[in-house]
Amino acid sequence: MATSTRPDTANTDRYGIERVAEDDPGFVDKLRAKWGWFDHVMRMQERYAGEGGNHFSAGVTYFSVLSIFPILMMVFGVLGFVLAGNQELLGTISDQLTESAGDDMGATLNGILDTAIEQRKSVLSIGFLTALWSGLTWMSNLRMAITALWKRPMKADNFVTGKLRDLVRLLGLLAMIFVTFAITAVGSSGLTAVILDKIGLGGVPGIGVVSFLVALALGLLANWVLFFWMLTALPRGEVPLGSTAKGAIIGAIGLELVKQLGSVFFSNALSNPAGAAFGPIIGVMVVLYLVWRITMYSSAWAATTEAALEMQPVDAPPPAIINIRGDAGVRRGLLRR
C-alpha cells in the first residue's frame, strides 16, 4: 500500500506546517488569551524592554540634571536684578538667612547672595545660553525616547524648524512641571492650613482631610494634563488621542505617587546636616529617573493599544533584487551556446 502524501489538515497549523500535536501554550500565554488587559500589559513591557526603555530613562535623567544648573543660574541672575533695586527686600532676606542657618552658614549664604547681585549680568547671560543649549538637548532626547517607543522615525525633517518647535515644547514642559509640583507642594505643606485659618475654615471638623483630597485631585488632574500633552505632542507623527489619554492616566497616578514620596523624603533629608548636604541632589536624580521611567511606560502603553498598532507601519524587509548573469548557465555546462 502506497504511503499517503496528503497533509493532515487536522494537525496543520496556520503556517502550513503539519505537527504531530498542537503546541500547548504556556501559563502566561493562557492568561494573555484570557484577559485582554493582561495581554496589553505584556505588550507594554515587551515594547518598553525591546526599545530600550531603561536606557532612555537613564539618558533623559542625565540631560535633565545637566539642565538644572543653568536654570538655577538664570534664577540667581533674575534674583540679583530684583534685589539690586530693592534694598529693603535684600535686608529682609539677609536677616532670615542668618537667623535660619546660623552665623557661619548665614555669612556664607549672604556672601553668595552678594556675589549673585554683583555679577547678575554675567550670571544671567551665561545661564541663559547654557540653559538654552542644555534644554534643547534635553527636549531633543526626550522626544527621541518617546518616539522610539512608538517605533517612528526619530529625526526631524528640518533642523531649524525642529529646534524652534523643541524650544516651544521645552517652555511648555517647564511651565507644566512647575504647576504640577507646586500644587503638590502646597497641598502637602502647612500653607494650606494657614490659608484655611485666614478664611475662617481652620476649625471646621475634617477640613484637613477635605483640603488634602482636593489638593490630591487637583494634582492628579494637573499630572494628567502634563502626560497627555507629552504623549500627544512629543512623538513624531500622528498618534491616537484615545490611546494617549489612557496612557496619561497611568502617568498621572505614577507621578503623584513619586511626588508624595519625594515630599516625605526631602522633608526628612533636610532635617539633618548630612542629609542637607547630599540628600537634595540624590533625591532630585532619583525623582527624575522615576518620572522619566513612568513616562516611558506610559508611552509604551499608549503605543501598544489596538488603535496605535493599526496605525503602526508594517516593518517589511526591503524588496529583493535578483540579478541573473547571462553566461552563468553556459559556464557551468548547463546550457549550449
UniProtKB/TrEMBL annotation:
It holds the Pfam family Virul_fac_BrkB. It is found in: Cell membrane. The keyword Transmembrane helix applies. InterPro entries: Virul_fac_BrkB. It comes from the Bacteria. It is a multi-pass membrane protein. GO terms for cellular component: plasma membrane. Keywords: Cell membrane, Membrane, Transmembrane, Transmembrane helix. The chain crosses the membrane at residues 62-84, 126-150, 170-196, 208-231, 274-292. This is Ribonuclease. It comes from Corynebacterium sphenisci DSM 44792.
